[in-house]
From TrEMBL:
One protein family per Pfam: Pyr_redox_2
UniProt keywords, alphabetically: Calcium, Coiled coil, FAD, Flavoprotein, Membrane, Metal-binding, Mitochondrion, Mitochondrion inner membrane, NAD, NADP, Oxidoreductase, Peroxisome, Transit peptide
UniProt membrane topology term: Peripheral membrane protein
Native organism: Trapa incisa
Residue span(s) of domain EF-hand: 380-415
Protein name: NADH:ubiquinone reductase (non-electrogenic)
Localization per Swiss-Prot or TrEMBL: Mitochondrion inner membrane; Peroxisome
C-alpha cells in the first residue's frame, strides 16, 4: 500500500478542499507562539485547483485526452517523480478500430472500452483524473482552462484552472465536414463509441420503419438505402459490416427486406482504400460489386438534406441520391481548442499542431502534442546543409572526405530519416556511394567534395519526406516514445543520447521519434480481410481474417476487454448479431 508523508497528506487536503486555502497555523517555539495566515488568490472567475508549488515539488505533467496517444503515454510512464493530472471528457479508453463492429452488433460497445481509472490505479504513481473538457490553453502562464461536462448541481462551479510544468496534448480530432451544407445536421459520424451506438440504433430504426404497413414501396426503398461517404478503411469496414448484418441476420428475421436494402459507398477520388496496395484496392472493389454494394468513385458530395444527398460527378453533373441513413467518414478536422492554441503559438492555416521530431510543439518549450491532433514537422536536409557540411569538415579544409562523411552518417540518418530512406530506395550502401554519384570516375576513398558538390549530392533526399498517417498505431507509438523520454529525462540531461546538434554544440537529449509500421488491415466482410504487412506482403482472404482476430484480441488494453471481445465474436458465430434496439 502506498504511504504518504505528513506533508503530502496536508498537500492533498489543500488540493481536494480549496476552501482550506485560508488557514491559521499555530506553532509553539520555546514557549512562544507564532501565528501564520495565508489567503490564496484564485484566478478571477475560475476555481483554481492544484497550483504549481515552488519548493519541494514534483514536476506537474498534465495530459489532455484518453485516446490512443494519451492512454499509451499513461501506461508507459513509470517515473514516480511526476505529479500527473489527466483531463478528458471521456473517462474511458476506446479500442476505436472495432467501432464499425459495434455499429451492427458484432461486438458490444462495453467490450471495447476500459475505464481510465482502472488503468491509472495500477500505476505506482501520483495520478489523478478529471472528467472535464479543456477549452483553452494558456501557454504563456502554463495553465489550462477546463469545463466539467457534468454541468448540473455544481453550484455554478463548472469551470476551473489547472497549472502545469509539462503539457501533453493528445485530444485527437473531430470529423471533417469540409463545411458542406447539411452534413452536420443530417449525417452520422463514426469517431466515438457514442457514434457507433447511435448508428446501431438508426440501422434498426430504418428496418423497423420500413416494416410499417402504411408505406409505399418507393418509401421503403428510400428508408433502407444506406449511404456511406468516404472510401477509407472506416467507411469500407462499415459497409462490409452492414452488408453482413443484412444478409446473415436481418433476412432471417424479415425475409422481405433483402431485395429492398441498398448500400452505396461514395468516394471522391478514383479508388477506395487509396492508402492500401493496388491489389487490395482492386480486390475490394470487385468484391463489393459482386455483393451488390454500389461503389461510386469520383463522386463529390456538395449538399445533404434530410432525405437526399447531392453529388457532383467528374463531368460536372449534379445528381441526387435518396437515402434513409448516411454515415460520414471522410477524414479528420481540427478541434476548436487546438485551432485557438495554434493561433496563440503562431501556427496559422494548418490542419494540425506542428511538432518537432521529439513531439514538442513548435514555438514552445514544455508542451508536447501527439496523435491525430498533431503532425511532425520533419526538418529538411537542405535547410541545414551548410551546418552539416561544417560539422563534418573537422579539419576545416573546405572539402569533405569519405572518412569525414562516414563519421557523421549515423547522426545524419538519425536526425534526418529521409536520408536513410533515400539510400535504401536507391539501393546504396552508405552516404559515400551517394557522394560518388557526383564524382564519377573517382575512387570512393579518394572522394573530396566542396560545399556545392555536397549540396548537389543531397539535393533530392528531401523528396522522400512523408507525413505520418492519422492512425491508432502511430498515436500509440508516439505515446510510448514520449513516456520513455519522461522516464529518462533526468538521466539524458546529464548524458544525452540523441544525434549531433548540427546547428549548435553537443547532442540532442533524446533520439527523435521514429514510427515503425507493423502493417494494416481492411476487413471486407464475409469473413475475409485484406492485410498489408511490412515487406510489401499482401494477404487477402479467410486466413487474413483469423490473423485480424488474433491481432485485435492481443492489442486490447486489458484482459477484461480481451475476453469480452472474444466472447462477443463467439456469440456472433453461434447466435448471430443482436437486432434489438436498446
Amino acid at each position: 500500500m502506498k504511504t504518504f508523508t505528513l506533508y503530502e497528506r496536508f498537500s492533498r487536503a489543500f488540493h481536494d478542499y480549496p476552501n482550506l486555502s485560508k488557514l491559521v497555523v499555530l506553532f509553539t517555539v520555546s514557549g512562544g507562539g507564532l501565528v501564520a495566515y495565508s489567503d490564496a488568490n484564485p484566478i478571477s472567475g475560475y476555481q483554481s485547483i492544484f497550483p504549481v508549488e515552488t519548493e519541494n515539488k514534483k514536476k506537474r505533467v498534465v495530459v489532455l485526452g484518453t485516446g490512443w496517444a494519451g492512454t499509451s503515454f499513461l501506461k508507459n510512464l513509470k517515473n514516480p517523480e511526476y505529479d500527473v493530472q489527466v483531463v478528458s471528457p471521456r473517462n474511458y479508453f476506446a479500442f476505436t478500430p472495432l467501432l464499425p463492429s459495434v455499429t451492427c452488433g458484432t461486438v458490444e460497445a462495453r467490450s471495447i472500452v476500459e475505464p481510465i481509472r482502472n488503468i491509472i490505479r495500477k500505476k505506482n504513481m501520483d495520478i489523478r483524473y478529471w472528467e472535464a473538457e479543456c477549452f483553452k490553453i494558456d501557454a504563456q502562464n502554463k495553465r489550462i482552462y477546463c469545463r466539467s461536462n457534468k454541468p448540473s448541481n455544481l453550484n455554478g462551479k463548472q469551470e476551473f484552472v489547472v497549472e502545469y510544468d509539462y503539457l501533453v496534448v493528445a485530444m485527437g480530432a473531430r470529423s471533417n465536414t469540409f463545411n458542406i451544407p447539411g452534413v452536420e445536421e443530417n449525417c452520422k459520424f463514426l469517431k466515438e463509441v457514442e457514434d457507433a451506438q447511435e448508428i446501431r440504433r438508426s440501422v434498426i430504426d430504418c428496418f423497423e420503419k420500413a416494416s410499417l404497413p402504411n408505406l409505399s414501396e418507393e418509401e421503403r426503398k428510400r428508408i433502407l438505402h444506406f449511404v456511406i461517404v468516404g472510401g477509407g478503411p472506416t467507411g469500407v469496414e462499415f459497409a462490409a459490416e452492414l452488408h453482413d448484418f443484412v444478409n446473415e441476420d436481418m433476412v432471417k428475421l424479415n425475409p422481405g427486406v433483402k431485395e429492398l436494402v441498398k448500400i452505396t459507398l461514395l468516394e471522391a477520388t478514383d479508388h477506395i482504400l487509396g492508402m492500401f496496395d493496388k491489389r487490395i484496392t482492386e480486390f475490394a472493389e470487385k468484391k463489393f460489386k459482386r455483393e451488390g454494394i454500389d461503389v461510386r468513385t469520383g463522386a463529390m458530395v456538395v449538399k445533404v438534406s434530410d432525405k437526399e444527398i447531392s453529388t457532383k460527378e467528374r463531368s460536372g453533373e449534379v445528381s441526387s441520391i435518396p437515402y434513409g441513413m448516411a454515415v460520414w467518414s471522410t477524414g479528420i478536422g481540427t478541434r476548436p481548442v487546438i485551432r485557438d492554441f495554434m493561433q496563440q503559438v503562431g501556427q496559422i492555416n494548418r490542419r494540425a499542431l506542428a511538432t518537432d521530431e521529439w513531439l514538442r510543439v513548435d514555438g514552445t518549450d514544455n508542451i508536447y502534442a501527439l496523435g491525430d491532433c498533431a503532425t511532425i514537422n520533419q526538418r529538411k536536409v537542405m535547410e541545414d546543409i551548410s551546418a552539416i557540411f561544417n560539422k563534418a569538415d573537422k579539419d576545416n579544409s573546405g572539402t569533405l572526405s569519405a572518412k569525414e562523411a562516414r563519421e557523421v552518417i549515423m547522426d545524419i540518418c538519425e536526425r534526418y530519416p529521409q536520408v536513410d530512406l533515400y539510400l535504401k530506395n536507391k539501393q546504396l550502401r552508405d552516404i559515400v556511394d551517394l557522394l560518388k554519384e557526383s564524382k564519377k570516375g573517382v575512387e570512393k576513398e579518394s572522394i573530396e567534395l566542396n560545399i556545392e558538390e555536397f549540396k548537389s549530392a543531397l539535393s533530392q533526399v528531401d523528396s522522400q519526406m512523408k507525413n505520418l498517417p492519422a492512425t491508432a498505431q502511430v498515436a500509440a507509438q508516439q505515446g510510448a516514445y514520449l513516456a520513455d523520454c519522461f522516464n529518462r529525462m533526468e538521466d539524458c540531461e546529464k548524458d544525452p543520447e540523441g544525434p549531433l546538434r548540427f546547428r549548435g554544440s553537443g547532442r540532442h537529449r533524446f533520439r527523435p521519434f521514429r514510427y515503425k509500421h507493423f502493417g494494416q488491415f481492411a476487413p471486407l466482410g464475409g469473413e475475409q480481410t485484406a492485410a498489408q504487412l511490412p515487406g510489401d506482403w499482401v494477404s487477402i482472404g479467410h486466413s487474413s481474417q483469423w490473423l485480424w482476430y488474433s491481432v485485435y484480441a492481443s492489442k486490447q488494453v486489458s484482459w477484461r476487454t480481451r475476453m469480452l471481445v472474444i466472447s462477443d465474436w463467439t456469440r456472433r458465430f453461434i447466435f448471430g448479431r443482436d437486432s434489438s434496439r436498446i
